[in-house]
Amino acid sequence: MARFQIKIFGSEAVVFDTDSGDTHYLPPLALALLQTYREHSRPSHDDILRVLTERLVFEPGLPPKAQVNQTLDELRKLELIGRQ
Amino acid sequence: MKLLQLSSADLRAHLHGPGIWLRTGPFSLRVQSRVESVAEGLTELYGQFEVRSASESFADFHIALNPPSHLRRWFRPQVNFSFDGVEPFKPLPLDQAYPMLEWGLNWCISSHAHHYLIIHAAVVEKNGLAAILPAPPGSGKSTLTAGLVLSGWRLLSDELTLIDRKTGLIHALPRPVSLKNESIPLIRAFSPSVFINRASHDTAKGTVAHMRPPKESVRRQHEAARPGWVIFPKWTAGATTVMEPRSKAQTFMFLAQNAFNYSHLGAEGFRVGTQLIEQAACYDFQYSRLEEAIAAFDRLAAASPTEKVES
Questions:
Q1: ipTM confidence
Q2: Min distance A2 CA to chain B CA atoms (Å)
């Protein structure tokens, strides 16, 4: 069984970590980032920003780049994407 | 045989002796008690339920409610709840014996029936589709549930949503509806013919009384329902009735946090819970007037195709 079980609901998702037993909510930006990482093995920062801008997943407030960095950190902490 | 067919003397003889066997939804229990308010509560609220001789039938849960044996039985009398001979809770004042039976039974089911994913939520049904009503205390969940089941919706449960892990269907557990504080006179005024038992005061939840489950809900207690909606009710004084779609992913997170055995079930709980959310439309629901709330639920049911479920 894969470590992470993911269920996508529209632009959001929930993830079950079979190692820890924890369940996580992925808002649209986190899901879009995760999908981008799965579609491109090692996306550049520019690739990521381009894809995410097309998907219109940014929240008002922090600049897009900061939102991406913050969300990538969170995904790495959850080990949903690898550390670079 | 139904409980109401037992004479008062026979019921008490069973309760004082080997206990009475009772079926509620998919569970059977054996209740033994020397407390008069327990006999009274069972007579008033469980009349339509199937009973048998406790010595002849297997029971899932063996429950007893009795006063402690020491001096407290004379000074501020109390009642103990025991399950399979173990007392999982501190005793309560004797006046709270009947609510303690209902709370204790909730605990027995939620901590042992792991063949279900069990969510802390009321659930009602119409046209084969279940509306799950999860909500924190004070949201008007029980009042709305009582109003709905007095207006043609079928009571599946006012407290425990039982999701069958194999089929994803929701099983019925139509026990008495727990009403608290202001909702007791409100439901009496809404439906003057409804039976609500004697209130217990100063409980951990305030004043508590139980409403007899509708006869039709008890008759159909072995009929499961498909998940139709997950609706978060919120009673707000003076508010207009509004039902708005809400995020399915966030609804799942709330249900997972409010399930009794989600952690226990692990990946299986995730599978069952996400499958439920996939099938259900999710809403936030604000209301102040019970009649308007029921009309909104009726419109929702009328807009959905009737589902037939084999039980």
A1: 0.89
A2: 11
